[in-house]
Amino acid sequence: MDALLSDLRQAARGLRRDGGFTAVTVGTLAIGIGLIAAVFSVLHPVLLAPLPYPEADQLAVVWTAIPSEGVTEATSAYANVRDWGSQNRTFDGLATYDPTTLTLGGYEVPEQVMTVRASATLFDVMAVAPQLGRSFTADEETRRATVVVAGAAFADLRFGSAGRAIGATVQ
To answer: What distance in Å separates the CA atoms of residue 144 and residue 151, rounded to the nearest whole number?
Structure first.
């Protein structure tokens, strides 16, 4: 223990003697620690944190592969997912979703919005429910009705509140 204290005293004297070296050392440590904290704060919610769904460890994504075209992960066609669901003996449920961008009209300036086309079973498979209103029904899916489940931020921005968005029309 005495040797450790002696070494620490000698290191402190050396750092006091050479101020430039001390500044560079402390600056390097500060930048390194700051970068590690920044990277972790970005990577943790994206890669390391569990998904915000009940039993998220039991969710799986199924892709379609088209080897002849060099495609390894393609969105599966709705008809395929429907057929897989009718023949399914493994999963509790299957749903399909397809992220896409649509143009929102009816306002002074049309706006591109990120949307997800989804099957009626998506909310059940994810074990979540809308906070207000309702989700899609199987009948609407069969009739290919156009129904929108809007996020709270979108509803607040376009309708003033989520409650006023229920039953509203979107172009």
So the answer is: 21
Question: Interior CA angle at 128 toward 123 and 129, to 5°?
Answer: 80
Q: Is 116 helix (H, G, I), strand (E, B) or coil?
A: strand
Interacting residues of 122 by C-beta distance below 8 A, sequence separation 6+:
95, 96, 97, 135, 136
Strand 64-66 vs strand 71-74: parallel, antiparallel, or unpaired? antiparallel
Instruction: Say whether pLDDT at 160 is over 90.
Output: no
pLDDT the model gives residue 5: 92
**What length does the chain have?**
171
Mean pLDDT, rounded, for 6-34:
89
Give the C-alpha distances (Å, rounded to integers) separating 167 from 136, 147, 149.
13, 10, 10
Query: What backbone torsions phi and psi does residue 91 show, to the nearest 5 degrees?
Result: -95, 155
Work out the average pLDDT over 60-82. 85
* CB 117 within 8 Å of CB 97: yes
Tell me the whole-structure pTM to 2 decimals.
Answer: 0.60
**pLDDT, averaged across the chain:** 85
* N-to-C CA span, the chain: 75
